[in-house]
Design brief:
Length: 240
């Protein structure tokens, strides 16, 4: 898989070298390209934004640098992801879908967004997804692009021996939040590990974990609970 990032803040992507994606790149599963959008400007000030037609607060990203950037970076078969608070909400299902793509180009908007004609044009030359990380507004799309990257890269086949752990996890349809987890020591700060986890009774442990997962989901994310979720054997959403 190849991932390209178009941004006016290329430094945001330095962590790609450090974390999961860095390991994937080192193992040859993944290639990255980070591109400063301003390299496609032609004025002395390297201008990427201008005032909005129709008035209103803030600035809009100009179409010309984006047009040149996309012409250079997008290839047949690419998927272009515009990270924007007005996109479809990112979730595990979308991460799984993006993990099947050969080439994803992240277009990271700033200010009040990118001139709509850029997105309309991109739709004519590539698959386009407009993706929001959640119902809140960030200063720009870079952090969202990093979050999407990490969620996608860890799903790549052959990455981090994921086969076993991915069977149990799922924020996919019907998932529950993960049950609480414990490790050694048995007593810490006067607090005990739940006795059932020390019992060696695998059936009882599985039942306890499931009850905890259902309780947590009901308390924190009741929107995830629907009748099929409560069928036995629903996947549990793991935190890590
Ligand atoms: N850019 C600004 N806010 C965002 C959000 N919530 N998701 C994705 N990109 C964004």
């Amino acid at each position: 898989m190849r991932l390209d990032y178009l941004t006016i803040f290329p430094d945001f992507f330095a962590p790609l070298e450090l974390s999961l994606p860095g390991k994937a790149a080192a193992s040859g599963l993944l290639e990255f390209g980070v591109h400063d959008l301003r390299q496609w400007t032609h004025d002395r000030h390297r201008t990427v934004d201008d005032t909005p037609y129709g008035g209103g607060a803030g600035m809009v990203m100009k179409p010309e640098p984006w047009g040149e950037a996309l012409a250079q970076v997008v290839a047949p078969g690419s998927t272009v992801v515009f990270t924007t608070p007005s996109g479809e909400r990112f979730d595990q299902r979308l991460a799984e879908e993006l993990a099947t793509r050969e080439h994803v180009v992240f277009a990271c908007g700033r200010y009040e967004g990118i001139d709509q004609r850029v997105i309309d044009h991109a739709r004519e030359v590539a698959e386009v997804r407009e993706i929001s990380l959640g119902d809140y507004v960030l200063n720009g799309g870079e952090v969202a692009a990093l979050a999407v990257t990490e969620a996608v890269v860890r799903l790549l086949p052959g990455f981090m021996g994921n086969a076993a752990s991915l069977v149990e996890e799922s924020h996919a349809e019907g998932g529950l939040l993960e049950y609480p987890v414990y490790t050694k020591p048995r007593t810490w700060d006067g607090r005990e590990v739940p006795a059932v986890l020390l019992s060696g009774d695998h059936g009882a442990i599985a039942r306890w974990r499931r009850e905890q997962a259902v309780r947590r989901t009901a308390e924190r994310r009741p929107d995830l609970l629907h009748p099929s979720t409560l069928d036995d054997g629903s996947p549990i959403v793991r935190a890590t």
